Amino acid sequence: MSVDARREVPTGTRSSEVTYDHLIIPPHWRRPAGSAPGEPNTLFPASEQAMAPPPGPAVTGASPINPMTGPMTGPLLVGTTARAFAKLDDLVRLGDDDRAVIDDRRAEAERALRSIFPPRCALPLVGVATIGSAGRDTMIRPLDEVDIFVVFSAANSAWKRFRWDSRDLLVCVRNAIGGDRVQTIGTRGQALRIVYDAAPDVHLVPAFDHPRAGYVIPDRVGGWLPTRPERHASWTMDLGPRVISAVRLLKAWNRVCGSHLRSFHIEALAGQVLAGRGLNTRQGLAEVFRYMDEVGLAVGDPSDIRGDLSSYLRRDDLEDLGAVVRQARVYSAKAVAAERAGDHEEAVSLWGTVFGPEFPTFG
To answer: Which of 72, 168, 227, 276 has the highest CB neighbour number within 10 Å of its CB?
Structure first.
């Protein structure tokens, strides 16, 4: 689908909005006429652009980072169900050291890329931002990868050079960075992987700052996919801390059960079920498990771009998930009832059945 093909404005669309290929693009997501480095950009606030790291050498080796977090250890004795979940969330969420590593990875990438793609070159860099679950505070430990969005300007005829085959952009960036540690990865061929001697690796996602479609990234066949990472980030933030905590715990449960579900799929599913409900974390998890068992796993992309986020699941995945989801629904419902009755020992034991032996122990 071409991002240049303009369609008629649908009925009900505000006059300040324009649609391209069924995408409603609000004005503050569109760049003003032209697209040049240094112009206002919602993904890279002016304060961050002003403090951009000075140019420096390209990344050539591993940098000192915090050691990879090991598995959770127990037993952790707790006296209430809420305390058990607070401890579990503390165990799985990224800590200050992890966030410092993420910031270092992004800063290293920006220093290297600004030196390779300066403002006056044929492919000028607009900015670099941390995206994905690391950027939305929904990633769980251990920290093994960081997604970094690398946005290039369409100035100097750069868009005309790559518009017909997005794979050329991946090859261009890869060759410019160089080194044996760079390899194309991703199910859609959208990223370049920078392999470090120790975790986390970096996934560079090259993108164009398209003046009409917002941001576009390569797909696997040479076309372009529109994307709105800033909208995903704001949508997640609007869910509130309780839902975000539930998202992290669902990711921990998913890992215990074989990691069948993708990270953003879990976020979108939890957000669809829990947004505005006002449930506590335990009630929220039980409601998500009930929804997954009764309604299913289909959920739309919050940015209205990708369609159904569950389309990647295979028949085998669905069969494996069916049993564990059903079990999680039964035990979580019993656990919520036990907590409501004041029996925290029983509630903690039941939740331990859902989350596995690493779940804190009552005592």
So the answer is: 227
